[in-house]
């Protein structure tokens, strides 16, 4: 990890480990940097001595303290210029962080040159949040799927039409390029890196040690029904969304929900979308998928039974909903994310 007082003139030998270079800049989002770094450092704590440890380096225009979001300062280990060509080619994984300063970073020729050079040889090139704009600016994501923070998806789509921007995914892997949504999604991406390098069991152990709620698959939505339920400003819809979450197995059709709040169907659908940020049917599907996901993780009940208990008319409808929301089938989800048998 970055330390005050490290010799900034000499880049250490990296042959004994996997060098992970995190590109940082002024006004960056601190959790885009520290989140992935903590996950990788957590992996170092549990993997055996025979496995390659992650050697994490923060690299910026200048070595030394840098102002991040929230008034926090991080210390960059090395400047871009200090990392010579041979040392750049030894970098295993590149992580480009995001934050409000990314648009100024796009004008930093030293930063762009460093990222472009490392991308040619690194085994993996990744970004967190708006760090994807750096990769996009260099043309590295052309013809690929990519993710970024949901607030910036439209901007990326307009600015880089050759990129297939996934507006909903937590993170996306396309070849050696991994891009993630904002802030905490960088930790999900880092868990994906750990899983690729050391297996699912190691990644799950790191997630538990960091008290993460779950290992979220890359295709999972940036939104959840629980988050959306906190959106309504009026008590009427706040109560209704919570009732939906608690009764996913009941009739949640628009006519029935409208009758619960004494509204016409059209007026209800319009007000619900305005308050919650999505149509009623989408919220209901999210709630049912979230409920089914928890059953798949925590129980060994048959998929067919889970589908019915979570309000799906049949398992096929649940399968299609999982593909829309998570990008995988219920069976695949269980295989990847269920708790290990004791």
Task: Give an account of the 3D structure.
By secondary structure, this protein is of the alpha/beta class. The protein folds into 2 domains: 17-209, Rossmann fold (3-Layer(aba) Sandwich); 225-337, Arc Repressor Mutant, subunit A (Orthogonal Bundle), CATH 1.10.10.60. Helix content is 46%, strand content 13%. The chain is built from 16 helices and 11 strands. The protein has helices at residues 30-46, 85-88, 102-105, 109-121, 132-137, 153-159, 185-198, 200-209, 225-229, 235-246, 254-260, 265-276, 280-298, 303-309, 315-325, 330-337; strands at residues 17-23, 53-60, 64-67, 73-76, 78-79, 93-96, 124-128, 145-146, 164-165, 171-174, 177-180. The protein has a 7-stranded mixed β-sheet with strand order 5-2-1-6-7-11-10, with helices on both faces. β1, α1 (30-46) and β2 (53-60) form a beta-alpha-beta unit. α1 packs across α8, α7 (185-198) runs antiparallel to α8 and α13 (280-298) packs across α16. Mean pLDDT is 87; it is low at 1-9.
Overall outline = globular
Helix proportion? 40-55%
Helix-strand topology string: EHEEEEHEHHEHEHEEEHHHHHHHHHH
Any idea what the radius of gyration is? 22 Å
How many domain modules? 2
Q: Mean of residue pLDDT?
A: 87
CATH class division of the largest domain: Alpha Beta
* Biggest sheet: strand arrangement: 5-2-1-6-7-11-10
Characterize the biggest β-sheet.
Answer: 7 strands, mixed
Tally of separate helices: 16
Strand content: 5-15%
State the end-to-end CA separation: 35 Å
The CATH level-2 architecture of the largest domain is identified as 3-Layer(aba) Sandwich
Q: Which homologous superfamily in CATH is the superfamily of the largest domain?
A: Class I glutamine amidotransferase (GATase) domain
CATH topology of the largest domain: Rossmann fold
Counting helices, strands and paired strands, the structural category is alpha/beta
Low-confidence stretches: 1-9
Number of strands: 11
């Amino acid at each position: 990890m970055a330390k005050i007082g490290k010799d900034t003139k000499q880049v250490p030998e990296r042959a004994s480990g996997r060098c992970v270079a995190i590109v940082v800049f002024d006004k960056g989002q601190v959790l885009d940097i520290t989140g992935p770094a903590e996950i990788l450092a957590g992996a170092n704590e549990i993997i055996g001595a025979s496995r390659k440890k992650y050697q994490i380096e923060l690299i910026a225009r200048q070595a030394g303290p840098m102002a991040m979001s929230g008034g926090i300062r991080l210390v960059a280990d090395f400047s871009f210029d200090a990392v010579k060509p041979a040392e750049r080619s030894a970098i295993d994984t590149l992580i480009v962080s995001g934050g409000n300063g990314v648009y100024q970073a796009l004008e930093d020729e030293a930063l762009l040159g460093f990222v472009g050079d490392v991308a040619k040889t690194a085994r993996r090139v990744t970004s967190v949040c708006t760090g994807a704009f750096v990769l996009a600016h260099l043309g590295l994501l052309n013809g690929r799927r990519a993710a970024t923070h949901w607030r910036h998806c439209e901007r990326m789509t307009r600015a880089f039409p050759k990129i297939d921007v996934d507006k909903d995914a937590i993170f996306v892997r396309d070849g050696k390029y991994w891009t993630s949504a904002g802030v905490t999604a960088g930790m999900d991406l880092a868990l994906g890196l750990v899983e690729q390098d050391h297996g699912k069991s190691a990644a799950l152990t790191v997630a538990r040690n960091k008290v993460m709620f779950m290992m979220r698959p890359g295709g999972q939505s940036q939104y959840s029904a629980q988050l959306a339920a906190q959106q309504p400003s009026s008590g009427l819809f706040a109560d209704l969304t919570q009732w939906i979450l608690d009764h996913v197995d009941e009739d949640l059709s628009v006519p029935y929900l409208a009758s619960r709040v004494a509204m016409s169907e059209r007026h209800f659908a319009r007000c619900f979308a305005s308050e919650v940020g999505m149509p009623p049917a989408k919220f209901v599907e999210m709630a049912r998928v979230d409920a089914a996901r928890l059953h798949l993780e925590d129980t060994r009940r048959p998929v067919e039974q889970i589908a019915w208990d979570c309000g799906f008319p049949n398992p096929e409808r649940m399968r299609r909903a999982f593909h829309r929301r998570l990008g995988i089938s219920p069976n695949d989800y269980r295989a990847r994310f269920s708790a290990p048998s004791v």
